[in-house]
């Protein structure tokens, strides 16, 4: 996987729209690059908070980058308030993403909630793969329409039963029919996916979701446990081989 140069970019907001309760799609104009699974640090304010917020790449097109994000704190709340034409600062691409060249055959993409965000770009970039998407949500689904041109099928679950299977996506996903599994979502969900993949001897790659501060591996806020010791999610990940992770 090619290492990409980290850039500091002043972008211009093309659109920033709420697509469901607490979930926004932000499109920024500018020249961007990045591998699936990588992220940018975004900052749309001058003073506090001190640091930007890590947001994974949802899609990159000609002179635009798209982010799908959830408002859950002060930084993302400020980010949700920017409008078309506003300036925004971006640093990236950061982290290690999915090694697309190693992912072949029949592939399952398993996501939970906002974990669906980085997987669109992964699905778009995968070649010579047959892809099924499994996506779990609490109440409302989002971000799925764009997958239809890249995947063979979409299985959905909602905890309230409003759409698809009533319950959790791990209740309808089984790794036995797949060569590889890509996963992103809540830690408890990813732990279940990694466990069943390990038991089935199926290779899994997970994009870890951890609270991050610096985004470049200096502060050690976002460490996760692996069989080779603690690793920095932002610098060594966020994508890890599932069998390398220490899970409960």
TrEMBL record:
FAD binds at residues 53-56, 68-70, 75-76. Residues 6-100 form the FAD-binding FR-type domain. The keyword Iron-sulfur applies. It comes from the Bacteria. Binds 1 [2Fe-2S] cluster per subunit. Transmembrane segments: none annotated. The keyword Iron-sulfur applies. InterPro entries: Cyt_c3_hydrogenase_gsu, Dihydroorotate_DH_ele_sf, Dihydroorotate_DH_Fe-S-bd, Dihydroorotate_DHASE_ETsu, FAD-bd_FR_type, FNR_nucleotide-bd, PyrK_electron_transfer, Riboflavin_synthase-like_b-brl. This is Dihydroorotate dehydrogenase B (NAD(+)), electron transfer subunit. The lineage of its organism: Bacteria, Bacillati, Bacillota, Clostridia, Eubacteriales.
